[in-house]
Every structure is written in C-alpha cells, then in structure tokens.
Design brief:
Mean pLDDT: 89
Distance between the termini: 28 Å
CATH superfamily of the largest domain: PDZ domain
Shape: globular
Number of strands: 11
Low-confidence stretches: none
Helix content: 25-40%
CATH architecture of the largest domain: Roll
Number of domains: 2
Strand order of the largest sheet: 5-4-6-7
CATH topology of the largest domain: Pdz3 Domain
CATH class of the largest domain: Mainly Beta
Strand content: 25-35%
C-alpha cells in the first residue's frame, strides 16, 4: 500500500485477496447487492445512481446521497472497494445505510434488502437533434460480456438508420482491457492500433 501511495495515482489501488475477488465478481454479468452505482466523492462513498427497479431505487436511495454508515459502522477511512464489499451481501439479507442527503435536516437511515442484480453494462438509446437521429451507447463498465452487448446495441441502432453515434463512457470505472479492445475493433478502421 505504501508504494502505491507514493504514485499519487487515483486509479491505482492495493487490494487484498478478498477485495480483489469482490472486484473480479463485479465485472461479471450479475451480483448480489443493492443495485446502485457508487463512487468516492471528496473522500465519501456516494451514490451516483440507483439501478432501475433495483432494491436501492425501491428503498429510496437517490443520486448524491453520501453514505455515512453501513450497518452502523462509519465509512470514514474505507476505500470504495471496502465499502462496496460491506454493502454487497447474500440475496434476501438487509443492509442498513445511513446517508447524508442534501436538503435533509438530519441523516437518513435506509434499510435495503439485497437481491440478485443483473449488470447492464451497455445502455442503448437515441436522441433527435436538428432533424438527425443520434444513436447513444452508454458503457457503464468494461465487464466480461460488454463487447457483445455493445455489438448487439450497435446492430439495433444501425437497423434504425441512425445518422450518428455517441459513445458515452463518463463515469465508467474501467474493467477488462480486452473488452475495450474488442469494442475498439468494431468502430476503428481495420489495422489501426488501439493499444500499444
């Protein structure tokens, strides 16, 4: 950990075996948990967004909720991965989150019943701008099957006769490099290097 701290690189973290296993699991096609994207914002574990129809959404968690405690234990000093490890758990069990919500006069205590959460790593949509149809592929992470989901989404958009394509990767924490490379080969002309 000390060596990584000297790098001053927010994308390099040390993971013990348990945390590493949890991270690899997060790159799969589903997991057991509450169904919310979280990030570390100013040193605080923060809800980016609950997944649609997830236990987190049903319990009332909202974007920008700051998680102060997990099952009564402070999140101070926890890494994002350590916090996620505590939030996730066996389907049917309950985790109680204490959150600081903007505009609330006091912390909120929100119990959430964990469930099996499918991971939607590619969201497909279209927008209309200036009489043109723009296809949008929002890649939330590069997991095991992201390239295949991207290819399926691209085929759907091409069948709709889109005029342009927007690939959204803001907020994407990364994942498998080969998944990103496979996506690159679908949109970059053949023979061009993607990773060197």
């Amino acid at each position: 950990e000390g060596m990584l701290d000297t790098l001053d690189d927010p994308y390099s973290v040390y993971m013990d075996q348990e945390t590493a296993n949890q991270f690899v699991e997060s790159l799969g096609s589903s997991f057991e948990g509450i169904g919310a994207e979280v990030s570390m914002t100013d040193g605080t574990v923060t809800i980016v967004a609950p997944f649609r129809e997830s236990p987190a959404e049903q319990a009332g968690l909202q974007p920008n909720d700051k998680i102060i405690e997990i099952d009564g234990e402070s999140t101070d000093g926890l890494s994002l991965y350590e916090a996620v490890l505590k939030i996730r758990g066996e389907k049917g069990t309950t985790v109680t989150l204490t959150v600081d919500r903007a505009g609330a006069s006091e912390f909120l205590t929100i119990p959430v019943v964990r469930d099996d959460i499918p991971i939607e790593t590619v969201r497909v949509s279209t927008i209309e701008r200036y009489g043109k149809t723009i296809g949008m592929l929002d890649i939330t992470s590069f997991s095991v099957d992201t390239a295949e989901r991207f290819e399926e989404g691209l085929a759907v958009l091409e069948a709709q006769g889109i005029d342009g394509l927007l690939i959204e990767v803001r907020g994407n924490p990364g994942g498998y490099l080969d998944s990103g490379e496979k996506i690159g080969t679908l949109i970059i002309p053949g023979g061009e290097p993607i990773v060197q």
